[in-house]
Design a protein that fits this description.
141 residues, alpha+beta, Jelly Rolls, 4-stranded antiparallel beta sheet, 3 helices
Length: 141
């Protein structure tokens, strides 16, 4: 069974559609403290975390501030998907050795055109993170 088949956010897709998406995915290993991407990098892919934890952080006043942790079976969605600049707005670093599934940006664009309701789900996740991140940056709990 493909890891993509287990992801709740993709549950509305048919098995054939998941199989097609799997054709565009590849596995990636990330070692502890290895950077998956840096803030301001170009957006080229999204990631499904298969195992362990990745910290998402931003530089604020020259200090790295951890905004949230992505855990196994969660998705590292890309805010850049919705912005014209198409750059990453945070840095992702492995806290442990991690396994990920990578799906390139052109596949995501095709998928969200065909399934706009999925795009809505992605937006909800991102909006929730933005609210949480802003609270953390402002010192709220």
């Amino acid at each position: 069974m493909s890891f993509i088949n287990t992801l709740e956010i993709l549950s509305d897709l048919t098995q054939e559609e998941k199989d097609q998406l799997s054709l565009f995915s590849q596995e990636k290993t990330l070692n502890v403290w290895e950077v998956l991407f840096n803030e301001w990098d170009d957006w080229i892919a999204m990631y499904f975390l298969k195992s362990w934890i990745i910290d998402i952080s931003r530089k604020i006043d020259w200090e790295d501030i951890i905004l949230w942790e992505v855990h196994a079976e969660e998705v590292i969605w890309e805010m850049a998907l919705f912005w014209e600049s198409k750059v990453r707005m945070a840095t992702a670093v492995a806290k442990e050795n991690c396994e990920l599934i990578t799906i390139l940006s052109f596949s995501i664009k095709d998928l969200t055109k065909k399934y706009p309701e999925l795009l809505g789900k992605i937006k909800e996740i991102i909006e929730g993170r933005e609210v949480s991140n802003n609270k953390m940056i402002d010192g709220e709990k």
